[in-house]
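JOB MANIFEST
job_type = single_chain_structure
chain_count = 1
residues = 162
[input]
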Amino acid sequence: MKPKRKKTAWSIGDVFAISLNNGKYALGHVLSQRLPNTIRIALYDEVIDSLEGNDINTLCREADLISLIEVTKEQIDFGVWKVIGNKPTIIPVIRHANEQYRNADPYLNGVGSGIYDAAIAEDFVNAFYALLPWDDWYKPDVLDELLINASKKPTNLIYKKK
């Protein structure tokens, strides 16, 4: 029998590092928690080389924001995404993923929301940095939908189906 994985402590406002396929780390920020098993996060076009020695105040800049998504929280729960600090977000709640689907009717609250597995966020940042194909999905442009806008799409992407 496998030993039970231990949950790690995290909180709203935590800045976390996602391992990239090149040994570096992409950055994310926990914005809020709408459902018990999901978190709403911001992903940034910022890469760090190490988990230590980073000035948290200079990280997660609005100008570098590339994605606002809601994901399952197992990667942060079990320490796969390493928390490197905490700071308040400057992104208003109205911009958090799926906020537009909140409704006064509890039966309709969240209808239409898009929630992704945390592994999708990992694939997204790896593809963003041309470490995985951008179009290696059943729907080849699915990662385009995770960008905050088309202007954030890198020009040096790699494609599998071209």
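[summary]
The first helix runs from residue 74 to 77.
Strands lie at 14-19, 25-32, 38-48, 65-72, 82-86, 115-116.
exit_status = 0
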